[in-house]
Amino acid sequence: MSWSVGQVAGFAGVTVRTLHHYDAIGLLVPSGRSHAGHRRYGDADLDRLQQILFYRELGFPLEEVAALLDDPDADPRAHLRRQHELLTARIERLQKMAAAVEQAMEARTMGINLTPEEKFEVFGDFDPDQYQEEVQERWGGTDAYRQSRERTASYTKEDWQRIQDEADELTRRFVALMEAGEPADSEAAMDAAEDHRRGISRNHYDCGYEMHTCLGEMYVDDERFTRNIDQAKPGLAVYMRDAILANAVRHTA
Question: Sorted alphabetically, which CDD domains does this protein's record hold (predicted)?
Fold first, then answer.
């Protein structure tokens, strides 16, 4: 039994254009063609696509995915073992997110020294009090939370405006890189990610590369963050996550 490119795109939740690209670069070449020359995918092709999407979800570049899947010494069991190891590592990273201060917590602390009028002047339509209960429950006992509260307790409206301006400038920088076609693992994108990390450390709490990676994962895994970040440009949250991961690898490998 075989399936068309449109059917496979529907199964896998990818675009037809993505499958065409995978075919063009030799990453996933369909095993058959119809009489009219249209792509036809078999069971083995679907298995390979599943492997590709798994590694892509973990942030592997396409070139590295191809090298992994085409390794003549690797068998299906070896891939499963590797995937299990990668998933375990990712689960551990996500668990450590409990020690990080998410953006909503930062927003909550931002309101400490502001009147309601000043708060909305600085943050626009975003309400810093929206996640107060969740933030206190998830991160209230962490060092990062305490550190952020200590640092921000004396912040003035001007301080918060400066921080917001810095964040807006970084957003524009990331968007410009996306629109220029810069890969997320390019030097320019990684430099922007490094400035993002340093800004958190400077203004809120000490943010190492592991914690920064967890924040990047959260931007994609939590739809609230994805929706907010992607307002600047669709796909920005994923692009930032990938740039943050690449930057962490650059500095820790």
Answer: HTH_TipAL-Mta
